[in-house]
Design brief:
about 220 residues; 11 helices; about 80% helix; binds 5-(aminomethyl)-2-methylpyrimidin-4-amine; globular
Length: about 220
């Protein structure tokens, strides 16, 4: 069994909870409160600034030129395509790019991005991929599931988001990360696979926390 299949099977219970989080479900139904989506967009922009750095680290850790080039193009598409979607939504919400970049990260955004970057900087390529994969893979799956909801992809606010994450281009990104993780773990020991599983589990859990943080618009409770 490929390592990605093992991960996907084993973590289905959490994966399902992520996909059935009210934020995701309400986006599909078009009933999600606009302020929650606005909050998500700003935090997700801050998240993506840090997430994109993982691709730069991946390029530095790549062992061949083709993989290095692929990481470089993922860095480019995250910054200039995925984040362009956020900049476009921000404009619609009357938020300038400067305000977007200078927004305050929530505790969950800080914890998630710092964990991923810690793993990416201190581990090898397989640790880095295990950390970033739930991000690419779960959004791809969520995008596809929401696109299958009648009318969801045409929603005036959430349709654009659904179309981006259910696109063929985004699917290719996720698939490339899955294939590379399978490749680099081909002859890994059971002990190594268990360590990687833990990293994948942690960022899968962070994905849930991120939806929850956005749904509750949760910043620092002691500041309120
Ligand atoms: C929190 C989070 N996770 C995943 C993705 C998809 N790149 C995202 N934009 N934001």
């Amino acid at each position: 069994m490929k390592f990605s299949e093992r991960l996907h099977t084993k973590l289905q219970p959490i994966w399902r909870k992520n996909h059935s989080h009210p934020f995701v479900v309400e986006m599909g139904k078009g009933t999600l409160a606009e302020e929650k989506f606005r909050f998500f967009m700003v935090q997700d922009y801050l998240y993506l600034i840090e997430y994109a750095k993982l691709f730069a680290i991946g390029a530095a850790k790549a062992e061949d030129v083709e993989t290095m080039g692929r990481f470089a193009s993922l860095l480019d598409s995250t910054m200039n395509e995925e984040m362009a979607l956020h900049r476009q939504y921000a404009k619609q919400f009357g938020i300038t790019e400067k305000e977007l970049e200078e927004a305050e990260p929530s505790p969950t955004t800080l914890a998630y991005t710092h964990y991923m970057l810690h793993v990416g900087q201190n581990g090898g390529l397989s640790e880095l991929l295990a950390a970033l994969l739930p991000c690419a893979w779960s959004y791809w799956e969520i995008g596809r599931e929401l696109a299958a909801v009648p009318g969801a992809a045409d929603h005036p606010l959430y349709g654009e988001w659904i179309r981006m994450y259910s696109s063929e281009e985004f699917a290719q990104t996720a698939q490339w990360c899955i294939d590379l993780l399978d490749d680099v773990t081909g002859d890994a020991s059971e002990l190594t696979l268990q360590k990687l599983e833990k990293i994948f589990l942690n960022t899968t859990r962070f994905e849930y926390l991120f939806w929850d943080m956005a749904y509750n618009e949760a910043m620092w409770p002691m500041d309120e």
